[in-house]
Amino acid sequence: MSGRPSRVCDRCGQPLSRYNPSTVCAPCSRAEAIPVVPERAWRDEEVHRALATWDFATVLRLVRRRAGLSQKAIQKLTGLTQSFISDVERGLKQINGRETIIDVLTGLGLPPDLRPLLLAPFAQAESQRLAQDIDPALPWTTARMVASLEAAAGGAMTGPNRRSVIAALSGAGLTQYILQAAIAPPEAIAATRDGITISDSLLTSLQSTTDALRQADASHGSGNLARAATAHLKVLLRLLKEGKYDEATGRRLAAVTADTAIQTGWYHFDSGAHTAAYNLLLGALRAAHASGDSRLRAGALSFLAIHSYSVGNPRDAITAARTARQIIADQDAPALHAMLLTRQARGHARLREDHQARTALEEARILCTRGRGEDDPHWLYWLNPGEIMGQTGSCLLDLGRPGQAAEAFADARDALGPNETRTRAQFLSRAATAQMRAGDADAGAATGHEVLTLAAGVRSARLDDNLAAMLSEARRYSSATPAQELLERGQAVMKERAAS
Q1: DSSP H or E stretch at residue 191
Q2: Which residue has the higher pLDDT, 246 or 217?
């Protein structure tokens, strides 16, 4: 006997299989699971600029966040893996290839009226001019310094090949920049235009903004500082181009610009945007050179050293740190020398050069005990015994000595100040890894819980990487209750951080 089925789908009214316990049929269930990007997510000036410059990493990040979607949801829409999406948003990978670009934009629901933005012409002549302006082999003039930083900050090129041009220039190698920073004479920097007069009070105010951002980073990590710092840097570049100042004021303006560019590069690096950080730090090195302040040149080289050993070029890190020490050889700056020696040691440790790493660390420790010298810069506020011991622990971990690393990290914990939240979280996450790697799972789990509590107030891609390494180590002891509890809490924390 035929008749109406006893159960139908609540959505479409089609008969439900007797094996389906749900009130919704399989096609409707799948349709419900597909996320949607609302059109409002595309109605943003930053998104439009990113489209016009083919900056698809920014497009992906902004649209996802404005749509309130997770990376897992974007995976469903675009077919990209979640790990690839994460790497793109952090600047570690790029979306390349016509088919991939089309698939991503189609999956994200690019509105038809925004498609013409993708047809912005390739400004080939402008790109070639910029390539000449920021070629490190050419004389380091003020104009080329400004052009380099404008390109790095995204303010000079509007064509879709801005990133590829800068990346190609970066391929010239760090050595060429290091050589120029060490031997090139500073160029004249005075400007006599009819623009705003650059006063001492204005420069003091601009420097205070840079210092305030630096203090925020020390407490809470890079977070959203990269965008604010980039905007501040663009103001300084405009003053360099359009301001009215004499030689002495111009060099001071270049110094503030160099300090700001170094910090901006650092915030991008700490956020995981390594390519952007590298280009900003190269521009910062030019600005430091223009300022005539050898300590700022050393500072830029020190951050380039961090970048180098972090991305797999530890030999470049050693070269940058050593050159920086030569540049400041005439300065009474024991703290600055000590900081550079820790950068050098990290490079040696990554290369498993045990003796060289330990020698550099011991020299850094001795210099640190001398206290600050007359020429040590104000921006080097973080160098203290706790920092030296933390860097020692990191080197020992890289050298395959987890037990000794755990002891060094314990010493660092005792020496660090209570307000150094970001630094404590970084070092303690490595300490937990070292303890578990040395076989002390209970101590590692206890330290790990402390780290997870600290991490709540710190936004940093580098910390995320350290947390991931810590949890990976904990999985070796997953049968033990302390490690299980750490993994459960850690996975929840990492999921929350990825969604933010």
Answers
A1: strand 191-192
A2: 246
User: What does residue 376 show for φ and ψ, rounded to 5 degrees?
Assistant: -65, 130
The sign of the CA dihedral 332, 334, 336, 342 is positive
DSSP string, 356-394: HHHHHHHHHHHHHHT---TT--TT----SHHHHHHHHHH
For the full predicted model, state whether its pTM sits above 0.85. no
Contact indicator for 56, 104 with CB cutoff of 8 Å: yes
Distances (CA, A) of 383 to 41, 214, 289, 342, 368: 43, 14, 23, 10, 8
Q: What is the pLDDT of residues 17-52, one digit of tens each?
A: 776 777 767 666 655 556 788 888 898 888 888 887
Q: Scanning the structure block, which residue is given the tokens 């990487």?
A: 465
Mean pLDDT score of the chain: 84
Give the pLDDT score at 193: 65
Instruction: State CA 82 to chain mean position distance.
Output: 20
Q: 222-226, 253-257, 271-275 — which is least confidently predicted?
A: 222-226
CA 292 – CA 255 distance, rounded (Å): 8
In angstroms, the CA 412 to CA 409 distance is 5
- 481, β-bridge pairs: none
Q: Tell me the C-alpha distance between 235 and 274, whole Å.
A: 23
Cβ–Cβ < 8 Å for 176, 140: no
Rounded Cα gap, residues 433 and 444, in angstroms: 7
User: Which neighbouring-strand residues pair with 15?
Assistant: 8
Only one residue has tokens 């973080």, namely: 382
**Band of pLDDT at residue 162, cut at 50, 70 and 90:** very low
